[in-house]
Amino acid sequence: MNYDPFGIKNIKSLLNDHGLYLSKNRGQNYLINRQSAEKIVNILPDLQDNDAYFEVGTGLGALTVLLIEKGKTLSLEIDQGVYKLVSERLTHPNLTLIHGDFLKWDEYPVNTKDSKEKKYYFISNLPYSISGEAIKAFIENDIFHTGVLMLQKEFADRMESPASSPNYGPLSVITQNFLHIEKLFSVGRGNFFPEPKVDSLVIKITKKESPFKQKDFALFIKTCFHAKRKTLANNLASSPWADSIITKDPICSQRPDAISPTEWARLYEEIAK
């Protein structure tokens, strides 16, 4: 395989040959350092017979070219021009390249006896604009259990922010209730083209067992954080939970950003009974 998506010179040549321009709106900052890519891919476990790697955002294939050497890989790319470029330049028996939007993607195996044993290992260099929704989709889909993500450092820090800290919010509550989060290593902004304004952080996420669905819990949390500076009681006053049992709880006199992820789970379990 002679396809090389690393280095600024190679990337500029690939883009110019196909008349492509990068989109700031889609956060198209491509990894150019092969050593960083290898470090990320090596975190993933080896595949068993029925497993596959599921990459969100093929980009120019910095992670893809390494993933396919490890095993079967499904790689999803939303940009039609980039998808066409990679599909023409990179072919491999282990690669299934897909043009589509992960946030709308639903073509997963049907839940049969055989497909339940299939595991998709999630991997992505997520752009900031879709990071939150992509992580929620990861939580929501039973076919995913483990993921390795490269995120803007600021976003990764928000995932683990404690109550009462400046960055604490609905994302912190959701991720800390549904995921084990392991911060692994930083990737400096100089490893990307075009160079972003911030550094990135690689994390590993693994799902926690939960008695309730992320989608329902997220709706509740979003409502409760509607006005961050108001008390929980005020935020619930015009909500579907205005007359629920939790409105009698003393914790409702607090602001939502003062309530810990564990307490949020307790409150939601009360109304879900």
Question: How would the blueprint of this fold be written?
Answer:
Layout: H1 8-17, E1 30-31, H2 34-41, E2 52-56, H3 64-70, E3 73-77, H4 80-89, E4 95-99, E5 120-125, H5 131-140, E6 144-152, H6 153-159, H7 170-178, E7 179-187, E8 192-193, E9 200-207, H8 214-224, H9 232-236, H10 261-272
Parallel strand pairs: 2-3, 2-5, 3-4, 5-6
Antiparallel strand pairs: 1-8, 6-9, 7-9
Helix pairs in contact: 5-7, 7-8, 7-10
Query: What value does the average pLDDT take?
Result: 92
Strand order of the largest sheet: 4-3-2-5-6-9-7
CATH superfamily caption of the largest domain: Vaccinia Virus protein VP39
* Helix proportion range: 25-40%
Specify the number of helices: 10
Number of domains: 2
Number of strands: 9
Described by strand count, sense and barrel closure, the largest sheet is: 7 strands, mixed
> What is the CATH topology assignment of the largest domain?
Rossmann fold
Structural class: alpha/beta
Write the H/E string, N to C. HEHEHEHEEHEHHEEEHHH
Poorly predicted spans: none
CATH domain class name of the largest domain: Alpha Beta
Task: Describe the structure in your own words.
With 273 residues, the protein is of the alpha/beta class. The protein has ten helices and nine strands. The chain has helices spanning 8-17, 34-41, 64-70, 80-89, 131-140, 153-159, 170-178, 214-224, 232-236, 261-272, and strands spanning 30-31, 52-56, 73-77, 95-99, 120-125, 144-152, 179-187, 192-193, 200-207. The strands form two sheets. It has a seven-stranded mixed β-sheet, sandwiched between helices. Helix 5 packs parallel to helix 7 (170-178).
